[in-house]
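User: Just a sanity check before I run the rest of the batch. Below are the structure tokens for the first item. I only need the designed sequence back.
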């Protein structure tokens, strides 16, 4: 998919991956296949075990060239290569997908945006080599539009550095990260501060249990006058452009996560329909099951193509690309829940057992619509985009 051989305004899309994109996919697939057992262990490991398993995966992924894709804020040329490879990872393991994306893409993009040599040497290089794990704290329990809301994270200049104080309630990779990047208000603007694990004034909360993705570690992060030196500060940023870009990239990744979940769910439901018999024949041969699977496949294919389309337009820096990313996020996230619920019906009572794959997919299907930009806020942004592009 999408060999960019024509201008997007001309409408041409080549529905095949290029040779380079296939190579990256194949290398990543080989790296993941090399240790299938570790993917299962990721769901059951304690914190230190989870960290070591993730580092093992990151080390193998580094050799494929996957970790550095999409980190430079204005680099669009590799977006389709990233999409091609990321599709595989989303099918192998949602927990691994989210952990790697938080580290390599979200944290990595912020680190790559800095022009500080010390930060690149100490933070970005080990990250791309798969030797360290990154985390990003952006979300806060506050009303971002209300300056009087004191729940925000703030930084104040102090001598030759900055003191950062605040709390981030949900940080993916928080308990296992080597470095954490947090956003904070600095002189009425936003800046990003990079802190190593164990840094004075930085406290990592206990792991937070989640409904799904048992192999993902999430915690709160609290800062109390944590001192950060200038080489490890990005900003103050002139505007919200970089952070808005980061959120759009996260939303595109979540659309792909949704597609990966749908593919895994569909495969499991189809396998059950082929193996489980009723009246002496596989239930796949019954119209009510066959029709339901056909509907799930239709949703899966539509979500996949819409996600491809959004990424392809982004690779061309098309004006409507952000709108399409949000459309893909909304459709794919909501379709994933529909597919998961229908698959439970196909699986019958057995699929409702706690350790059944379809039960796990059902629990995980609600996350993409809540993470990043929620589907409700995506719809608001889509409506705003339409008004701007087609003013009355």
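Assistant: Here's the designed sequence for the first item:
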């Amino acid at each position: 998919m999408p060999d960019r051989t024509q201008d997007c305004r001309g409408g041409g899309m080549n529905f095949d991956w290029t040779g380079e994109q296939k190579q990256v996919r194949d290398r990543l697939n080989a790296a993941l296949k090399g240790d299938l057992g570790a993917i299962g262990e990721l769901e059951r490991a304690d914190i230190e075990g989870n960290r070591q398993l993730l580092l093992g995966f990151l080390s193998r992924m580094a050799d494929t060239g996957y970790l550095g894709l999409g980190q430079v804020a204005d680099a669009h040329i590799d977006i389709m290569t990233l999409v091609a490879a990321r599709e595989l990872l989303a099918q192998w393991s949602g927990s691994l997908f989210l952990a790697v994306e938080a580290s390599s893409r979200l944290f990595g993009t912020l680190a790559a945006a800095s022009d500080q040599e010390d930060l690149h040497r100490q933070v970005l290089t080990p990250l791309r080599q798969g030797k360290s794990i990154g985390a990003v704290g952006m979300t806060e329990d506050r009303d971002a539009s209300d300056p009087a809301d004191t729940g925000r994270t703030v930084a104040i200049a102090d001598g030759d550095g900055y003191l950062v104080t605040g709390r981030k309630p949900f940080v993916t990779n928080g308990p296992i990260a080597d470095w954490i990047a947090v956003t904070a208000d600095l002189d009425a603007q936003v800046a990003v501060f990079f802190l190593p694990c164990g840094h004075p004034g930085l406290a990592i909360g206990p792991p937070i249990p989640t409904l799904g993705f048992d192999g993902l570690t999430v915690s709160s992060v609290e800062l109390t006058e944590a001192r950060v030196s200038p080489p490890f500060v990005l900003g103050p940023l002139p505007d919200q452009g970089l952070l808005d870009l980061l959120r759009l990239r996260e939303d595109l990744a979540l659309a792909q996560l949704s597609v990966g979940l749908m593919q895994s769910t569909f495969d499991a439901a189809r396998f059950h329909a082929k193996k489980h018999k009723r009246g002496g024949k596989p239930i796949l041969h019954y119209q009510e099951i066959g029709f339901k699977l056909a509907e799930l496949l239709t949703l899966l294919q539509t979500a996949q193509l819409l996600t491809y389309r959004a990424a392809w337009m982004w690779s061309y820096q098309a004006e409507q690309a952000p709108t399409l990313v949000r459309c893909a996020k909304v459709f794919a996230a909501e379709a994933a829940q529909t597919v998961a619920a229908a698959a439970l019906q196909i699986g019958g009572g057995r699929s409702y057992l706690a350790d059944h794959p379809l039960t796990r997919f059902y629990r995980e299907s609600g996350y993409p619509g809540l993470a990043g930009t929620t589907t409700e806020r995506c719809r608001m942004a889509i409506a705003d985009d339409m008004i701007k592009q087609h003013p009355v």
